[in-house]
Design a protein that fits this description.
Number of helices: 8
Structural class: alpha+beta
Strand order of the largest sheet: 5-1-6
Largest sheet: 3 strands, antiparallel
Number of strands: 8
């Protein structure tokens, strides 16, 4: 079983406890749970043997997401279960590869929150982040580039993109952005 942490970590200066903030709620984590949460903060991790119950408790609170899969399929399934938000800090994209930079531009400048499956669809169709598709003015055109009649029903796009040849590249780019702390998963 693999898991990935969601939320933002803060530490109380008064108590020294770690807190994870997610969707307006702050969850205090003891040393064991904080260690498990931090381990999967920047990349999917296998659940340590004997720690399944602790991970399940965090999953019930929405602090982690789990899957029985492994490899890039596991990473994809974990990422589609998260809201992907760009970190508000100003970043330079000078050190990013072209494909990672393209994914970053989609996430940072699109007029809506894009999911992992929507990013895979854009990459699969080789859609470039042009000004006509970015920002509030480009929302409708961007949505039309992603969704067609056969992909509108709930869950269809996620399932189809699971088998896309572009999936692994997008997952790799998202994990790179997560590892460099440019993304926050909610």
């Amino acid at each position: 079983m693999m898991y990935l942490s969601k939320g933002e970590l803060t530490q109380s200066s008064k108590t020294g406890l770690d807190y994870v903030s997610r969707c307006g709620c702050a969850y205090a984590l003891g040393p064991e749970l904080a260690g498990l949460w931090k381990k999967a903060r920047l990349a999917p991790q296998p659940v340590p043997e004997g720690r399944e119950q602790a991970v399940r408790r965090m999953e019930a609170s929405g602090l982690v997401i789990t899957t029985e899969e492994t490899g890039t399929l596991a990473a994809y399934r974990l990422l589609i279960g998260c809201v992907i938000c760009p970190n508000s800090r100003r970043w330079t994209d000078r050190f990013l590869t072209r494909s990672v930079r393209r994914i970053w531009k989609w996430l940072h400048e699109a007029g809506l929150r894009l999911t992992a499956s929507e990013l895979v669809r854009l990459e699969e169709r080789r859609v470039q982040p042009t000004p006509a598709l970015l920002g509030e003015d480009g929302r409708q055109r961007l949505t039309e580039m992603i969704y067609f009649a056969e992909t509108i029903p709930d869950g269809i796009l996620e399932t189809r993109m699971e088998h896309s040849p572009a999936r692994d590249n997008v997952v790799g780019a998202l994990l790179e952005l997560l590892r460099t702390r440019r993304l926050l998963l909610i």
